[in-house]
Amino acid sequence: MKILAVESSCDETAVAVVEDGRRVLSDKIASQADMHALYGGVVPEIASRKHVEVIAALADEALKEADMARGDIDAVAVTYAPGLIGAVLVGVNFAKAAAYALGVPLIPVHHVRGHIAANYIAFPELEPPFLALAISGGNTLIVDVKDYTDLEVIGATRDDAAGECFDKAARVLGLPYPGGAPMDALAQQGTAGTYDLPRAHVNGSDFDMSFSGLKTAVVNLAHNAAQTGRELDKASLALDFTNAVSDMLVPRAMAAAQQCGRTTVVVAGGVAANSIIRADLQRACREHGYRLYVPPLSLCGDNGAMIGAQGYYEFRAGRRAETDLNAFATLDIAAG
Question: Which of 30, 35, 137, 258 gets the most CB atoms within 10 Å of its CB?
Protein backbone atom coordinates (compact mmCIF):
# COMPACT_ATOMS: atom_id res chain seq x y z
CA MET A 1 0.00 0.00 0.00
CA LYS A 2 1.47 3.34 -1.08
CA ILE A 3 0.54 6.37 1.01
CA LEU A 4 1.14 10.02 0.15
CA ALA A 5 1.83 11.62 3.54
CA VAL A 6 1.62 15.33 4.42
CA GLU A 7 3.08 17.09 7.48
CA SER A 8 2.80 20.84 8.15
CA SER A 9 2.31 21.21 11.90
CA CYS A 10 5.03 23.80 12.49
CA ASP A 11 7.74 25.28 10.26
CA GLU A 12 8.62 22.34 8.03
CA THR A 13 6.51 21.47 5.02
CA ALA A 14 6.99 17.76 4.36
CA VAL A 15 5.53 15.32 1.84
CA ALA A 16 6.55 11.68 1.57
CA VAL A 17 5.54 8.47 -0.12
CA VAL A 18 5.63 5.44 2.18
CA GLU A 19 4.91 1.82 1.29
CA ASP A 20 3.28 -0.51 3.83
CA GLY A 21 4.27 1.68 6.76
CA ARG A 22 7.95 0.76 6.70
CA ARG A 23 9.51 1.54 3.33
CA VAL A 24 10.16 5.18 2.43
CA LEU A 25 10.02 5.77 -1.32
CA SER A 26 10.56 9.53 -0.99
CA ASP A 27 10.63 12.14 1.76
CA LYS A 28 10.79 15.80 0.74
CA ILE A 29 11.12 18.58 3.32
CA ALA A 30 11.05 22.34 2.86
CA SER A 31 12.44 23.93 6.02
CA GLN A 32 11.69 27.50 7.11
CA ALA A 33 14.27 27.55 9.91
CA ASP A 34 16.44 30.27 8.36
CA MET A 35 13.45 32.56 7.95
CA HIS A 36 12.18 32.16 11.51
CA ALA A 37 15.71 32.51 12.88
CA LEU A 38 15.39 36.23 12.16
CA TYR A 39 12.71 36.41 14.88
CA GLY A 40 14.22 33.94 17.35
CA GLY A 41 11.33 31.50 16.93
CA VAL A 42 8.48 30.43 14.70
CA VAL A 43 6.08 33.14 13.55
CA PRO A 44 2.80 31.25 12.93
CA GLU A 45 1.44 33.52 10.20
CA ILE A 46 4.67 33.35 8.22
CA ALA A 47 4.81 29.57 8.65
CA SER A 48 1.28 29.16 7.29
CA ARG A 49 1.95 31.32 4.25
CA LYS A 50 5.15 29.45 3.39
CA HIS A 51 3.33 26.12 3.61
CA VAL A 52 0.80 27.40 1.08
CA GLU A 53 3.59 28.47 -1.26
CA VAL A 54 5.46 25.17 -1.41
CA ILE A 55 3.17 22.26 -0.55
CA ALA A 56 1.81 21.46 -4.02
CA ALA A 57 5.21 21.55 -5.70
CA LEU A 58 6.69 19.49 -2.85
CA ALA A 59 4.05 16.79 -3.41
CA ASP A 60 4.97 16.65 -7.10
CA GLU A 61 8.64 16.31 -6.13
CA ALA A 62 7.83 13.48 -3.72
CA LEU A 63 5.95 11.59 -6.43
CA LYS A 64 8.75 12.15 -8.93
CA GLU A 65 11.41 10.93 -6.51
CA ALA A 66 9.30 7.83 -5.79
CA ASP A 67 8.96 7.28 -9.56
CA MET A 68 5.17 7.27 -9.24
CA ALA A 69 2.21 8.84 -10.96
CA ARG A 70 -0.67 10.35 -9.02
CA GLY A 71 -2.85 7.40 -9.92
CA ASP A 72 -0.44 5.04 -8.13
CA ILE A 73 -1.34 6.49 -4.72
CA ASP A 74 -3.60 4.25 -2.60
CA ALA A 75 -4.34 6.74 0.22
CA VAL A 76 -3.42 10.17 1.58
CA ALA A 77 -2.35 10.59 5.22
CA VAL A 78 -2.05 13.96 6.95
CA THR A 79 -1.16 15.47 10.31
CA TYR A 80 -4.39 16.98 11.64
CA ALA A 81 -3.29 17.62 15.25
CA PRO A 82 -1.59 18.99 17.25
CA GLY A 83 0.35 22.01 16.02
CA LEU A 84 0.11 25.64 14.96
CA ILE A 85 -3.48 25.74 13.83
CA GLY A 86 -2.92 27.80 10.69
CA ALA A 87 -0.02 25.62 9.63
CA VAL A 88 -1.91 22.38 10.28
CA LEU A 89 -4.89 23.66 8.30
CA VAL A 90 -2.75 24.12 5.19
CA GLY A 91 -1.72 20.47 5.21
CA VAL A 92 -5.20 19.22 6.05
CA ASN A 93 -6.84 21.19 3.26
CA PHE A 94 -4.24 20.09 0.72
CA ALA A 95 -4.60 16.45 1.77
CA LYS A 96 -8.39 16.61 1.62
CA ALA A 97 -8.27 18.03 -1.89
CA ALA A 98 -5.71 15.44 -3.00
CA ALA A 99 -7.64 12.50 -1.58
CA TYR A 100 -10.90 13.75 -3.11
CA ALA A 101 -9.33 14.35 -6.52
CA LEU A 102 -7.60 10.96 -6.54
CA GLY A 103 -10.63 9.12 -5.16
CA VAL A 104 -8.62 7.49 -2.39
CA PRO A 105 -9.09 7.28 1.41
CA LEU A 106 -8.01 10.15 3.66
CA ILE A 107 -6.21 9.10 6.86
CA PRO A 108 -5.94 11.51 9.83
CA VAL A 109 -2.73 11.14 11.86
CA HIS A 110 -1.79 12.56 15.25
CA HIS A 111 1.57 14.32 14.99
CA VAL A 112 3.13 12.68 18.06
CA ARG A 113 1.95 9.25 16.96
CA GLY A 114 3.87 9.99 13.79
CA HIS A 115 7.05 10.80 15.72
CA ILE A 116 6.81 7.45 17.51
CA ALA A 117 6.17 5.70 14.19
CA ALA A 118 9.44 7.08 12.79
CA ASN A 119 11.05 4.20 14.66
CA TYR A 120 9.10 1.68 12.58
CA ILE A 121 10.94 3.02 9.54
CA ALA A 122 14.35 2.94 11.19
CA PHE A 123 13.87 -0.45 12.86
CA PRO A 124 11.79 -2.91 10.78
CA GLU A 125 11.81 -5.43 13.63
CA LEU A 126 10.18 -3.04 16.12
CA GLU A 127 6.61 -3.87 17.13
CA PRO A 128 4.42 -2.82 20.08
CA PRO A 129 4.07 -3.08 22.98
CA PHE A 130 6.73 -0.68 24.26
CA LEU A 131 7.21 2.47 26.34
CA ALA A 132 7.71 5.65 24.29
CA LEU A 133 9.34 8.90 25.37
CA ALA A 134 8.16 11.59 22.94
CA ILE A 135 10.19 14.79 23.35
CA SER A 136 9.90 17.66 20.89
CA GLY A 137 9.46 21.40 20.64
CA GLY A 138 5.74 21.23 21.27
CA ASN A 139 5.21 18.02 23.23
CA THR A 140 6.80 16.03 26.03
CA LEU A 141 5.01 12.77 26.78
CA ILE A 142 5.62 9.35 28.28
CA VAL A 143 3.37 6.95 26.40
CA ASP A 144 2.50 3.30 26.87
CA VAL A 145 2.21 2.01 23.29
CA LYS A 146 0.06 -1.10 23.71
CA ASP A 147 -0.52 -1.50 19.99
CA TYR A 148 0.02 0.56 16.84
CA THR A 149 -3.13 2.58 17.44
CA ASP A 150 -3.74 1.92 21.15
CA LEU A 151 -1.69 4.43 23.14
CA GLU A 152 -2.03 5.71 26.70
CA VAL A 153 -0.32 8.77 28.17
CA ILE A 154 1.46 7.87 31.41
CA GLY A 155 3.12 11.24 32.01
CA ALA A 156 3.32 14.66 30.38
CA THR A 157 4.71 18.13 30.91
CA ARG A 158 2.41 20.43 32.85
CA ASP A 159 3.73 23.53 31.08
CA ASP A 160 6.54 23.97 28.55
CA ALA A 161 7.79 21.19 26.32
CA ALA A 162 11.43 20.17 26.67
CA GLY A 163 12.26 21.30 23.14
CA GLU A 164 10.69 24.70 23.68
CA CYS A 165 12.90 25.18 26.75
CA PHE A 166 15.99 24.33 24.71
CA ASP A 167 15.05 27.04 22.20
CA LYS A 168 14.39 29.62 24.93
CA ALA A 169 17.62 28.81 26.79
CA ALA A 170 19.57 28.98 23.53
CA ARG A 171 18.18 32.41 22.75
CA VAL A 172 19.18 33.72 26.19
CA LEU A 173 22.70 32.38 25.60
CA GLY A 174 22.89 34.14 22.25
CA LEU A 175 22.64 30.98 20.15
CA PRO A 176 20.73 30.78 16.86
CA TYR A 177 17.27 29.29 16.32
CA PRO A 178 16.51 26.42 16.40
CA GLY A 179 18.47 26.00 19.58
CA GLY A 180 18.76 22.23 19.97
CA ALA A 181 21.88 21.57 17.91
CA PRO A 182 23.78 24.72 19.02
CA MET A 183 23.01 23.93 22.67
CA ASP A 184 24.26 20.36 22.20
CA ALA A 185 27.50 21.53 20.61
CA LEU A 186 28.10 24.21 23.25
CA ALA A 187 27.43 21.80 26.12
CA GLN A 188 30.28 19.55 24.96
CA GLN A 189 32.69 22.30 26.04
CA GLY A 190 31.22 22.83 29.52
CA THR A 191 32.00 21.66 33.03
CA ALA A 192 29.17 19.91 34.83
CA GLY A 193 28.08 21.21 38.23
CA THR A 194 28.98 24.83 37.61
CA TYR A 195 25.37 25.97 38.02
CA ASP A 196 22.79 24.58 40.42
CA LEU A 197 19.59 24.28 38.37
CA PRO A 198 16.20 23.00 39.56
CA ARG A 199 14.62 19.63 38.85
CA ALA A 200 10.87 19.90 39.25
CA HIS A 201 8.54 17.28 40.71
CA VAL A 202 4.76 17.33 40.41
CA ASN A 203 3.12 16.31 43.67
CA GLY A 204 0.85 13.31 43.25
CA SER A 205 1.93 12.70 39.64
CA ASP A 206 5.22 10.84 39.60
CA PHE A 207 5.49 10.72 35.81
CA ASP A 208 4.41 14.29 35.04
CA MET A 209 7.03 16.96 34.37
CA SER A 210 7.47 20.73 34.55
CA PHE A 211 10.15 22.67 32.68
CA SER A 212 9.08 26.27 33.15
CA GLY A 213 11.04 26.69 36.40
CA LEU A 214 14.20 25.44 34.74
CA LYS A 215 13.71 27.84 31.85
CA THR A 216 13.17 30.74 34.26
CA ALA A 217 16.30 29.82 36.23
CA VAL A 218 18.45 30.00 33.08
CA VAL A 219 16.90 33.33 32.07
CA ASN A 220 17.53 34.77 35.54
CA LEU A 221 21.14 33.59 35.60
CA ALA A 222 21.83 35.21 32.25
CA HIS A 223 20.09 38.47 33.17
CA ASN A 224 21.80 38.72 36.56
CA ALA A 225 25.21 38.16 34.96
CA ALA A 226 24.52 40.92 32.43
CA GLN A 227 23.31 43.35 35.09
CA THR A 228 26.23 42.77 37.47
CA GLY A 229 28.92 42.56 34.81
CA ARG A 230 29.90 39.01 35.73
CA GLU A 231 31.04 36.66 32.99
CA LEU A 232 28.60 33.84 32.25
CA ASP A 233 30.09 30.43 31.57
CA LYS A 234 27.75 29.72 28.67
CA ALA A 235 29.13 26.27 27.86
CA SER A 236 28.78 25.06 31.44
CA LEU A 237 25.30 26.54 31.71
CA ALA A 238 24.30 24.75 28.50
CA LEU A 239 25.65 21.49 29.93
CA ASP A 240 23.99 21.89 33.33
CA PHE A 241 20.72 22.83 31.62
CA THR A 242 20.86 19.74 29.42
CA ASN A 243 21.67 17.53 32.40
CA ALA A 244 18.69 18.98 34.28
CA VAL A 245 16.36 18.20 31.37
CA SER A 246 17.78 14.70 31.13
CA ASP A 247 17.36 14.18 34.88
CA MET A 248 13.66 14.98 34.53
CA LEU A 249 13.17 12.72 31.53
CA VAL A 250 15.26 9.60 31.88
CA PRO A 251 14.41 8.35 35.43
CA ARG A 252 10.68 8.88 34.76
CA ALA A 253 10.88 6.92 31.53
CA MET A 254 12.65 4.05 33.29
CA ALA A 255 10.11 4.01 36.14
CA ALA A 256 7.18 4.20 33.71
CA ALA A 257 8.53 1.26 31.72
CA GLN A 258 8.80 -0.76 34.90
CA GLN A 259 5.27 0.13 36.00
CA CYS A 260 3.83 -0.76 32.57
CA GLY A 261 5.81 -3.98 32.38
CA ARG A 262 7.69 -2.91 29.24
CA THR A 263 11.22 -4.03 28.47
CA THR A 264 11.52 -1.96 25.28
CA VAL A 265 11.90 1.83 25.33
CA VAL A 266 11.44 3.97 22.22
CA VAL A 267 12.45 7.64 21.94
CA ALA A 268 10.91 10.06 19.45
CA GLY A 269 10.88 13.75 18.51
CA GLY A 270 13.42 16.48 17.89
CA VAL A 271 14.98 16.43 21.38
CA ALA A 272 15.86 12.77 20.78
CA ALA A 273 18.70 14.17 18.66
CA ASN A 274 20.47 15.52 21.75
CA SER A 275 23.65 13.52 22.28
CA ILE A 276 23.69 13.85 26.09
CA ILE A 277 20.10 12.71 26.52
CA ARG A 278 20.68 9.84 24.09
CA ALA A 279 23.74 8.73 26.07
CA ASP A 280 21.88 8.96 29.39
CA LEU A 281 19.02 6.87 27.99
CA GLN A 282 21.42 4.27 26.65
CA ARG A 283 23.15 4.01 30.00
CA ALA A 284 19.87 3.81 31.97
CA CYS A 285 18.37 1.19 29.65
CA ARG A 286 21.53 -0.88 29.87
CA GLU A 287 21.37 -0.76 33.69
CA HIS A 288 17.69 -1.76 33.71
CA GLY A 289 18.06 -4.42 31.04
CA TYR A 290 15.76 -2.60 28.60
CA ARG A 291 16.16 -2.53 24.85
CA LEU A 292 16.39 1.03 23.52
CA TYR A 293 15.36 2.33 20.09
CA VAL A 294 16.37 5.86 19.09
CA PRO A 295 15.73 7.00 15.52
CA PRO A 296 18.53 8.41 13.35
CA LEU A 297 18.87 12.18 13.34
CA SER A 298 17.10 12.42 9.97
CA LEU A 299 13.92 11.01 11.52
CA CYS A 300 13.98 12.93 14.81
CA GLY A 301 12.63 16.20 13.40
CA ASP A 302 9.32 16.70 11.61
CA ASN A 303 9.04 14.74 8.37
CA GLY A 304 6.41 13.25 6.11
CA ALA A 305 7.70 9.69 6.28
CA MET A 306 6.68 9.31 9.92
CA ILE A 307 3.13 10.37 9.04
CA GLY A 308 3.00 7.82 6.25
CA ALA A 309 4.27 5.12 8.61
CA GLN A 310 1.63 5.78 11.26
CA GLY A 311 -0.98 6.41 8.59
CA TYR A 312 -0.59 2.84 7.37
CA TYR A 313 -1.42 1.43 10.79
CA GLU A 314 -4.29 3.88 11.28
CA PHE A 315 -5.68 2.68 7.94
CA ARG A 316 -5.35 -0.97 8.98
CA ALA A 317 -7.27 -0.10 12.16
CA GLY A 318 -10.13 1.27 10.05
CA ARG A 319 -9.40 4.96 10.54
CA ARG A 320 -10.74 7.19 7.78
CA ALA A 321 -11.71 10.84 7.46
CA GLU A 322 -14.13 12.66 5.20
CA THR A 323 -13.81 16.06 3.54
CA ASP A 324 -15.11 17.72 6.71
CA LEU A 325 -11.89 16.78 8.58
CA ASN A 326 -10.79 19.69 10.76
CA ALA A 327 -7.43 20.66 12.26
CA PHE A 328 -6.78 20.90 16.02
CA ALA A 329 -4.11 22.84 17.88
CA THR A 330 -4.21 20.38 20.78
CA LEU A 331 -5.39 16.79 21.01
CA ASP A 332 -4.73 13.87 23.35
CA ILE A 333 -2.58 11.25 21.68
CA ALA A 334 -4.95 8.55 22.93
CA ALA A 335 -7.78 10.13 20.94
CA GLY A 336 -5.66 10.51 17.82
Answer: 137
